[in-house]
Amino acid sequence: MASQGEIQSSLVCGCKGIRSCLICEKLNTEINFTGKETPKLSQDFEYNLSSRRAVRYVDGVEESFPFPGVLLWENFVTEEEENELVTKMDEHVWRESQSGRRKQDFGPKVNFKKRRVRIGGFCGLPSISEKLVSRMNEEPQLSGFKPVEQCNLDYNPQRGSAIDPHLDDSWLWGERLVTINLLSDTILTMSLDEGCGQFDQGEVRVNVHLCRRSLVVLYGEARHRWKHAIHRKDIHSRRVCSTFRELSAEFLPGGEQAEMGTQLLDVALTFRGVPL
Ligand SMILES: O=C(O)CCC(=O)C(=O)O
Fold first, then answer.
1. What's the rounded Cα separation, in Å, for the pair 187 and 259?
2. CB-count burial class (<10 Å; 0-12, 13-18, 19+) for 199
């Protein structure tokens, strides 16, 4: 029998404004989307896991610069766990989102523009995440990591799924963004429009290769200065990811909204959630 996830490969999309996916691009043929995939002139580097540097070769000569703020944990989940995680996700409804993605959100109701947050219908992270969060805490870089939001995203090449370069909010969300990458390998593209250091002639991109079942943490400069994106060209088969976000200092003890922070944590860490 087909799962919810399979049944829902519908012809509707959740795109708004400048966002588009293959579904609305096919329906709105009068709108010219061709500029969308035209690559911008950029200087492209690969992230090297062992040296933690961004590296490229020009005429056989290596050029590189330090690229701090990325932690990769390969095989964070086993094949069995991956299967269990995706099966559980597909038992619930996936909501259409922008740029051909579908999503499931476990988190508070937030208005980022007005800087307002409330519990709303949030009843916790899903139960299956409890063991994952405690595994994350074994890594020194993730010690004390207590997420108050989990967002599952579903990418599919048939929908032209992608996420444009962006920085995550830092009013509500804290220092570490943690993502588990499931079902297929992809590339997380980090970019700086204005370039950096000696590479200051236009955009610089650093490709971080994400293996299936790996976990990636963005922190420091990679979290706050470099934008991140998943480009359409880097989705080759279904990809599902779960991103976990912790609270910023404003919502932690001593912060102006510490009381709200405590309430959010109390709900999140019951691990009794269903998607909103
Ligand atoms: O798909 C990913 O790995 C990135 C997701 C992301 O950037 C976001 O949810 O803000």
1. 38
2. middle
Q: Give the SS3 label for residue 126.
A: coil
What is the CATH number for 190? 2.60.120.590
For ligand 1, residues with CB inside 6 Å are: 151, 153, 163, 168, 179, 188, 228, 230, 241, 243
Tell me whether residue 1 is in a domain. no
> What is the CB neighbour count within 10 angstroms for residue 228?
23
Give the total number of structural domains in the chain: 1
Measured CA to CA, the distance from residue 20 to residue 140 in angstroms comes to 39
What's the gap in Å between 181 CA and the centre of ligand 1?
A: 10
Average pLDDT of the chain is 92
Let me know if residue 7 belongs to a domain. no
Q: Report how far residue 103's alpha carbon sits from residue 98's, in angstroms, rounded to the nearest whole number.
A: 9
pTM of the prediction?
A: 0.92
Q: How many angstroms separate the first and last alpha carbons of the chain?
A: 25
Query: 180 CA to middle of ligand 1, Å?
Result: 10
* Ligand 1 geometric centre to CA of 58 (Å): 30
Contact 276, 121 (CB under 8 A): yes
In a domain, 62, yes or no: yes
In angstroms, the CA 189 to CA 208 distance is: 6
Closest atom of ligand 1 to 186 CA is 3
Q: With contact defined as beta carbons under 8 Å apart, do 147 and 239 qualify?
A: no
Query: Averaged over 38-61, what is the pLDDT?
Result: 92
- pLDDT for 145: 98
Structure tokens at 103: 């999503």
Q: Which domain holds residue 53?
A: 12-268
Kindly give the distance from the C-alpha atom of residue 1 to the centroid of ligand 1, in angstroms, as a whole number: 30
Q: Is residue 238 part of a domain?
A: yes
Beta partners for 178? Answer: 217, 244
